[in-house]
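Example complex used in Figure S2.
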Amino acid sequence: AQSVTQLDSQVPVFEEAPVELRCNYSSSVSVYLFWYVQYPNQGLQLLLKYLSGSTLVKGINGFEAEFNKSQTSFHLRKPSVHIRDTAEYFCAVSDRSRNSGGYQKVTFGTGTKLQVIP
Amino acid sequence: SAVISQKPSRDICQRGTSLTIQCQVDSQVTMMFWYRQQPGQSLTLIATANQGSEATYESGFVIDKFPISRPNLTFSTLTVSNMSPEDSSIYLCSVVRTEAFFGQGTRLTVV
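Predicted assembly (229 residues):
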């Protein structure tokens, strides 16, 4: 079984400042990792995903994340945030070996609310 | 990718009644997943629905409260039975093709 820990429930940051949202996971098997964003009163949208290859993954809206296997982390970063980035961000994990057939559920962290201050 | 149509998008229901939520996927999938997102919280998996067999429920969720049907490889329903105000949540269906794809959600309010 996998689990995801997002230590920061809320992160306030001034506009144009950099931000890092932390995510740590626990798993006994190889994993896929994801970040989703949920804007107020909207559905979930995939920001980026790590499947294999380069550990630095670039996503939409200028976000990127780095997979660190030794630290079991997948932190999300953006060098300069905008007001429109105010949303809730969810880190998620699934079992790589069972995912390809659509058999494996995706486990979500508790979410981090990013509040961008003008 | 996958496109999931979920309905209703929202409903307000009286306590003690039941609501059935439907999800239609644009292609065949082996498993469909049902999540609940309570206000201000993350997604919690309710159950996994496999066509042709009974759904598998996560700890804390039971079939009598959340019966699920999976009549074919593109469709599933989740019923929220004997509702109470604590059932007020967003309910989402999902399929996985490497990443999780979601329906738009059903925002349920129980009064």
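The domain at 3-117 of chain A is CATH 2.60.40.10 (Immunoglobulin-like). Helices of chain A lie at 96-99.
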